[in-house]
Structures are given as C-alpha cells and as structure tokens.
C-alpha cells in the first residue's frame, strides 16, 4: 500500500481496517458506542477517494446532523485535500431538498418551494381541520399532525390511509391528510416528512430520474443507521438501486448500534439494522468491539444498564484505557442543589486544571431542565451554552420576518402569507381573512391570487376598509418582490421588510422590555443574513450541475434556515471553550472528557410516560446508555429528592437505572439523608448518612413503608395536612399524589423516611 494508504489505515484496528477496505457487497458495521463507527465511515470515504479512484461527486454520505456532516467533510478534506468538499455529505433532509429542488419540475412543483416545519404544519392542519368542521378538542391539530407524520414515515399516502382506516380517528386523520396534502401542493410547499417521502416517490415513479442518481452515486454511506425510519430505509434502497436499470448497485456502507436507537417517536426502527442481512442478501457484517472513548469503569456501567433491555444482542465492548476515575454520584435536596453541585464541581475541575470548560457537558432528559443550570451558571459567571430549547428560529418575531421572506420567495406559500397578512396590524381582521380564504377555497385558487382578486372587488362580503388594507398589503409585497427579482442581498431585502412594514419601528416604540429583546433578535437575524451573503459570494460554487438556489440567494438562505437543527449549534470545545448543556437526545454521537448526567429520577429519567410501558422503558434505557457512553474520563450521575415540575414540587424516587449500575463503580459524594428507620444502603445513594455501617435491610424493597389509599388523610412535616388523590406503582416505587391544599398537590414516594403520617 502507498504511504498515504498506510496513513489512512495506520491507527485503525483490524476490524475497522476491514470495514474501510471492504469493496463490493453491502456492508453493515454494528458496534457499541465509541468503537469508531463514525471514524470508519470518514476513513472509508478518504480511502475511496485516495486509494480506489473514486471521484468526490460519486459519494453520498448521510449523517444525523448538519454539523456532523460539515465535520465529516472537513475531516475527509484534512485527509485527502480540498476536492473532498464537493461530495454530498448531508442529513437525509438536506439531501432530499437538494434532489427535490433539482427535480421539482418532474413532480409538477416549482423549485422555489417552501419547507414547512412543525409549527407551519400545525398552522395549516388547523386551517384544514377548521374547514372540515372538526372539533379541535377531540381532534387537536397536534394529534392530527403526529398521525399524519407517522403515516408519511411509513410511506402511506392519503388515499391508502383512507382505505386502511378502520375507526373514526383513522378516518378523520385520512380526511385531514388528504386536504392537508392538497393545500401543501397549492402552497408549493413540502413538510419535513414530505422531503423524504416525495423523494422516494420520485425515485420509484421516475426510472429515468432514478437512473441518473444511480449513475452518479457509486457509494452510499449512512451513519447512525439505527435511527432511520421506514421512509429513510426505503430511500437508501432506492438510491443504491438493484442494477435492473443496467447500472450496478452503489456500494452501501451503513454503521449503527441498535442500543442507541432513541428516535422511535419519529418512527425509527432497529428493524433496519436487525434485518440488514435479509434486506441485502449479499451483505457483509463487521463487528467492532474495542471502545476508544471511555474508561473501563464508564463502559462497565453502560454495559450493565443496557444489558437489562430484553431482546437485544449482547455485545462485548471493552476498553484498554484503564479503569480511570470512579463515577461520582450525588443526591441533591432539590434541583437547585443539584445545579449548585454541578457548578461547584465544574469550578473545582477547572481550577485544578483537570478540565477546561469546553471539555465539559451537562445532560438532562428534557429541555425545561436547563433553566436551573442557567440561573446558577449565570450567577457564578460560568461560561456555558444551551443547545436547543426555545430556538432562535422559533421566536415569534424571527418567524414573522422569515414568513415575509418566504412569501416573497414563494408567493404560493399560504401559511407564510396568512401569518403576515395582518402582522404588524394593518386593518385586515380575521373576518376579512376568512372571506378571502373561503373565496380561495371555492374558486380553487391560491391565497395570493385571492388577495389580488379581493383588491379588484371580486371577493364577496368584504368591506371597503379591508379591501383597501389588502390593496396596501399587495402593493407592499409587490414592491419588495422587485428586490427579490433583482437578486438583491438577503440582508437588504430583510432590512426593507422591517422598514417598510414598520415592524421594527413598532417594537422600538413599545415600552415592553420584551419588545426590545425582539428588536435585538431581528437585528441578529439581519446579521445572520449579512454573513450568509458575504459567505455566499466568497465561496466558489462547488457543483455546477445542481440546479440549486444560487449561493447567497434568498432561496439558499431560507433553505439553510429551514434545516437548522438543535444539534447544529453544539459549541466546539477548542474554539468556544464553554460548558455545553443539552438533552440526552442531542448528545448522540458526541463525546466529552467530563459528563454530568443529571435528573436520574423515576418520572424524570426514565420519563413519566415510560413508567408503565416496557417498550418506552427500553427506549429510555437506550437513552441512558447513550448518555453514559458520551463520557471519556469522568462521569457524574445526580438526582434530586424533590424537583419542581409544572410549578409543583414532586418527590421522586431514584431512577431505576441507577439501581442497575454496579455499586462498586460509584463513589456517592452525598446520599439521601436518613430521616427515620428503616433505612437501607443500596447502590443508588439511598444509604444512611450515619457514619456507622448501616444495617442491611432490604425489606422496604418489596413493600411500601406507608400504605395509603385514595381518600386517606395524611399529615406531612413540611406540607401539613392533606388528602390522597391518587396512588401509583407498588413496592419501593409506590407513590401517592396528595393534595395539601394551600401547599399544593405533591407526588411523594412511600418508602421509609418520608415524613408522612396517615391520620
Ligand atoms: P457512537 O456510537 O457514540 O457514535 P462511534 O462508534 O461512532 O461512537 P467514534 O466517535 O468514531 O465512535 O470514535 C470514538 C472515539 O474513539 C473517537 O474519539 C475516535 O477518534 C476514537 N477512535 C476510534 N477508533 C480508534 C482507533 N482505532 N484508535 C484510536 N482512537 C480511535
Ligand atoms: Mg458515531
């Protein structure tokens, strides 16, 4: 092998090397966390380019986030030089947008289509449901949206959904689906699920188009294959091809870990990994067993937890990085105490030079848990960044501004148009909007055309004032449209929107401090647009053939903005140097020297919803596995005895997952304080705080210490008199929900030590 090849293969183990060098048949690399799956994928691409003579344009690689895609491109470029930049490395969604823009005409769409996110989708479904006279209480738009999304993830179209419907809900969903889809088409828009589903349709229904892509892509590589859903699975198959069109199938390489499948709620199914060899009969499977990321202690803990999941293939994952530090456990009084502990510990690590801020991550189960950490980090001046949460692009003013841009870029975009019709207020009330929309529906024309008809008096029941207001709006949009036609800079168009609509002036004049934040956000958006334009003109167009929106154009800007995801804003350890806060879901694929996994309480993590549901519980356990295996050297696990949720304090039992970690791996810095007998030392920080070795007494493990029924009256040291309104669970996990009147309703665990007396 050449010296470059040696360099590409040098720091790989034999199994990894085989995966990199394998040629021909489809290949699945299955392996536990941190075993180098992503590294294999990156190296394989570099190897294809430098050793196997592949052209960058023949390579399609799919990653789970845009950020991961950018990093993979960078890595490959580091290995083989800048020509690597013209590969298609992207998420499923970005890849599909690219294909759909090129092929829009084939599907009777125009290539400036809008991409609807979940909020747009919900708005449109609300309109549709209203038109169908559905009771919004019985059929909330959210629920309908979830059902439609699930159908699309299974590649079920509206007609099929209708045929298959067996009950009232399914029939309603199918009905909404059908007219929702029609409205999307009229709006020249696609929702997120459509991006995948319509691309599959395109490839299946148009052999000539499929052949084009088969000829082009000789290599298809997919990371995080365990999180693909049925639609994505089919898309991969269609891209690879069967050879029936005379083009040999692409070489397929997928990597994944069934134990890290955490997107079942988006239809992800480990079936795609488990059945790979059935889907691709010639397939080669390669197992990786050495973990290069974590200490053996961390790995043993992760293995112990995930081994409790039923129906999984056991893997022998090992590390030769040594045992390293023990896991640190901490039982906090409440969530503030927990955050304080995390902050103190970070301070200590940084002061002692054991870690810097950029090497530290804090994970939690749900976004709302970040607030407490933020409060304390701000107070202590600890630099941090929260990934996700209420995102910049979800803020009202940002969405409003973008809706203007979208309506300008794609005048058929009804949702955007209706969003801004009377924002800022210009005298086009709900009634006027309804008149126009009814007219549009009746005439089967787009909302934009209906507005124009309104101006010339064709829309019935519209009063002259509304008509004038609409005329003003149409004129405004036409003026702004000239700038778009002319190809003005995005930032200039945005500035013009904010000026001429007086949107910004109105906020500036307000004395609500919130509105000042809104102005700042709008200015930030202008900055984003400005940078985008500068970048677009600075970077040469890499691919001539794509038919994409021109670099730096409004279309390209909107596309970028539509596809940003939480995970794309994960800070870089080196350049940003801040502590990263994120949910466990967002942490997938990442690694940090120091990890704080917080909120290990039954009802928080595992999530409340999973407590009675074995499938959901398995998914939560996989999430625990993902969380633990992000840590390289130090892992902290913490829980709070009491946590406020929805404004009410709730006493939560320890997460059952803590119980599954071998006791000898954890150094409990603080355990649950003992209140009264009986107490029991256990592996999960329940032990007595007394210095004497506590007596082993596991009796409470089987029975709740306090037996309560609904209706019982109780008194609690802290909350006073109360009445039991619900009892859940059994044994040590039994909890009671108690109404303490003025002190609120509290959920308490019923084990020994709870200062609760039945009256
Ligand atoms: P996950 O399941 O979390 O996505 P993964 O299997 O994709 O993990 P990688 O992220 O590719 O694992 O690798 C984990 C870490 O181990 C990375 O820091 C990577 O650089 C390192 N690594 C992988 N293989 C080797 C190797 N052969 N020698 C040294 N380090 C390696
Ligand atoms: Mg990976």
UniProtKB/TrEMBL annotation:
Pfam families: PcrA_UvrD_tudor, UvrD-helicase, UvrD_C. Its EC number is 5.6.2.4. GO terms for molecular function: DNA helicase activity; hydrolase activity. Residues 296-589 form the UvrD-like helicase C-terminal domain. It catalyses: Couples ATP hydrolysis with the unwinding of duplex DNA by translocating in the 3'-5' direction; ATP + H2O = ADP + phosphate + H(+). Residues 675-700 are annotated as: Disordered. The keyword Hydrolase applies. PROSITE patterns: UVRD_HELICASE_ATP_BIND (PS51198), UVRD_HELICASE_CTER (PS51217). The keyword Cell cycle does not apply. ATP binds at residues 31-38. Residues 10-295 form the UvrD-like helicase ATP-binding domain. It comes from the Bacteria. CDD domains: DEXQc_UvrD, SF1_C_UvrD. Belongs to the helicase family. UvrD subfamily. This is ATP-dependent DNA helicase. It comes from Saccharothrix longispora. The lineage of its organism: Bacteria, Bacillati, Actinomycetota, Actinomycetes, Pseudonocardiales.
């Amino acid at each position: 092998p050449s010296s470059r090849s040696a360099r590409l293969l040098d720091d790989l183990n034999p199994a990894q090397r085989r995966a990199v060098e394998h040629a021909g048949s489809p290949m699945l690399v299955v392996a536990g966390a941190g075993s180098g799956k992503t590294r294999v994928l990156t190296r394989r691409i570099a190897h294809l380019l430098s050793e196997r003579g592949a052209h960058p344009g023949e390579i399609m690689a799919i990653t789970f986030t845009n950020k991961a895609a950018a990093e993979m491109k960078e890595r490959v470029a580091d290995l083989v030089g800048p020509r690597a930049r013209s590969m298609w490395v992207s998420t499923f969604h970005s890849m599909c947008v690219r294909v759909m823009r090129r092929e829009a005409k084939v599907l009777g769409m125009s290539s400036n289509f809008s991409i609807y996110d979940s909020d747009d989708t919900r708005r449109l479904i609300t309109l549709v449901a209203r038109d169908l006279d559905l009771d919004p209480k019985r059929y909330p738009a959210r629920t309908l949206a979830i059902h439609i999304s699930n159908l699309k993830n299974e590649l079920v179209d509206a007609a099929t959904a209708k045929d298959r419907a067996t009950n009232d809900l399914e029939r309603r969903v199918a009905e909404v689906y059908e007219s929702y889809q029609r409205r999307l088409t009229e709006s020249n828009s696609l929702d997120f699920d459509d991006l995948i589903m319509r691309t599959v349709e395109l490839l299946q229904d148009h052999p000539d188009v499929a052949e084009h892509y088969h000829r082009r892509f000789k290599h298809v590589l997919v990371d995080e294959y365990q999180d693909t859903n049925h639609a994505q699975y089919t898309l991969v198959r269609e891209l690879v091809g069967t050879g029936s069109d005379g083009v040999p199938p692409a070489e397929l390489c997928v990597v994944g870990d069934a134990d890290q499948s955490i997107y079942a709620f988006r239809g992800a199914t480990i079936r795609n990994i488990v059945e790979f060899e059935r889907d691709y009969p010639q397939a080669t499977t390669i197992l990786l067993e050495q973990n290069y990321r974590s200490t053996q202690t961390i790995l043993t803990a992760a293995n112990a937890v995930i081994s409790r999941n039923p129906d999984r293939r056991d893997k022998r994952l090992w590390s030769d990085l040594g045992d390293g530090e023990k896991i640190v456990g901490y039982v906090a009084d409440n969530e503030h105490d927990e955050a304080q502990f995390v902050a103190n510990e970070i301070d200590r690590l940084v002061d002692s030079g054991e870690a810097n801020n950029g090497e530290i991550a804090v994970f939690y189960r749900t976004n709302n848990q970040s607030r407490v950490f933020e409060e304390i980090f701000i107070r202590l001046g600890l630099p941090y960044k929260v990934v996700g949460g209420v995102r910049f692009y979800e803020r009202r003013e940002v969405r409003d501004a973008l809706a203007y841009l979208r309506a300008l870029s794609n005048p058929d975009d009804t949702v955007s148009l209706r969003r801004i019709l009377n924002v800022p207020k210009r005298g086009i009330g709900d009634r006027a909007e309804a008149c126009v929309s009814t007219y549009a529906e009746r005439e089967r024309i787009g909302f934009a055309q209906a507005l124009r008809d309104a101006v010339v008096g064709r829309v019935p029941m519209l009063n002259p004032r509304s008509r004038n207001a609409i005329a003003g709006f149409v004129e405004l949009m036409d003026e702004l449209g000239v700038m778009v036609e002319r190809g003005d800079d995005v930032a200039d168009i945005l500035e013009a929107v904010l000026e001429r609509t007086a949107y910004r002036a109105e906020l500036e004049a307000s004395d609500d401090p919130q509105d000042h934040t809104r102005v700042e956000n709008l200015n930030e958006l202008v900055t984003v647009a400005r940078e985008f334009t500068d970048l677009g003109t600075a970077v040469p167009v890499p691919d001539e053939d794509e038919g994409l929106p021109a670099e730096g154009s409004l279309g390209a800007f909107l596309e970028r903005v539509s596809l940003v995801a939480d995970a794309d804003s994960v800070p870089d350890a080196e350049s940003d140097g801040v502590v990263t806060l994120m949910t466990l879901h967002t942490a997938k694929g990442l690694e940090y020297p120091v990890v704080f996994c917080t909120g290990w309480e039954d009802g928080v993590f595992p999530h409340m919803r999973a407590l009675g549901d074995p499938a959901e519980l398995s998914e939560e356990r996989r999430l625990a596995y993902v969380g633990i295996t992000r840590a390289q050297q130090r892992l902290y696990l913490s829980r709070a005895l009491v946590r406020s949720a929805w404004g009410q304090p709730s006493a939560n039992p320890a997460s059952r997952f803590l119980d599954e970690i071998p006791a000898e791996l954890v150094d409990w810095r603080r355990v649950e304080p003992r209140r009264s007998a009986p107490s029991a030392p256990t592996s999960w920080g329940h032990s007595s705080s007394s210095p004497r070795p506590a007596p082993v007494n596991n009796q409470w493990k089987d029975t709740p210490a306090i037996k309560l029924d609904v209706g019982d009256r109780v008194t609690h040291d802290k909350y006073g008199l109360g009445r039991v309104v619900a009892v859940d669970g059994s044994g040590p996990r039994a909890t009671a929900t108690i109404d303490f009147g003025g002190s609120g309703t509290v959920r308490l665990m019923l084990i020994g030590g709870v200062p609760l007396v039945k009256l």
